[in-house]
Amino acid sequence: MWRHSPIIMIILLSLVSLDTRYAAWPRGSVRTAPKAVPSKCDRSKFKLILDVGHTADAPGARSARNIPEFDFNLRLAKRIEDKLKSEGFAQTSLLVTEGPKRPSLFKRATAINNSGADLVLSIHHDSVPDSFLEEWEFEGTKRHFSDRFSGYSLFVSHDNPKFWTSLRFARLLGNRMKAQGLQYARQYSQAVMGRYRRKLLDKKVGVYRYDQLIVLSRTRVPAVLFEAGSIINRDEELAMASTERQDMIGAAVVGAVKEFCASR
Questions:
Q1: Nearest to residue 58, comparing CAs of 88, 19, 10, 97?
Q2: Do residues 96 and 74 make contact, with C-beta atoms less than 8 angstroms apart?
Q3: Helix residue spans in the chain (DSSP H)
């Protein structure tokens, strides 16, 4: 009988070991995929505040057809609230404040901090600096407009203690808006905006840094300010007033909130 060399013996032992392990498997068994990890998102407990920008007393910008921004903000916020609640986010609520502009800002920041909210989305509609305004006549009355810019924009504050979480949600919402075929307002990064110029944090989806906004900087929860579109632009004003555009924006917000909640 011939002698096995050490190398041959190692190979034989390896084969025996492999065969033994194979024999231990049940015949015909199939390896199953690992079970999916359940989402940590409990929609019924997720607390989201939709902050309606401005007040009835200080209604913000005026549209090209002289409609107060506050009316646009409230209408869109209510539509988003309905969509979120229909998707199981039962603790979604509107924050509507009263009074003059500056006191109302501190009032809403206090309300947010006392709410225990998981996320705040402040709803606004955009305009332009006065130097960009032009005149036109609508229904026999002179109005102001600017068709120069359009689009949505998202703002976060570095002074918010949850800055990175705020930025993450802003990006999620920006991606959803982009997926709906909507473009962001690019003028805020341009020198022509003067003191309104902001640092662009995400050039793909339109997230800007705006540290001085009280509703962002004075709150202790993730917070994003959302300019849904320009109402001083005559065509976009009409789009923003339509249920079709409001539903597109609502779908984007719902999708972003779902992702944000599931990834916490």
A1: 97
A2: yes
A3: 6-24, 69-86, 101-113, 163-179, 214-217, 234-241, 243-262
Angle at 167 between CA 163 and CA 171, to 5 degrees: 175
> Pairing between strand 223-230 and 153-156?
antiparallel
Q: Which amino acid, residue 40?
A: K
pLDDT reading at 10 higher than 60 = no
Return the percentage of the chain with pLDDT > 90, whole number: 82
Q: Give kind and range of the element (H or E) at residue 207.
A: strand 207-209
194-203, long-range: CB < 8 A, 24+ apart: 194/129, 196/129, 198/155, 201/156, 201/167, 202/167, 202/170, 202/171, 202/174
pTM (2 d.p.): 0.85
103 burial (CB, 10 Å; 0-12 / 13-18 / 19+) is middle
The tokens for 158 are 């570095």
Cα–Cα dist 83/89, whole Å: 9
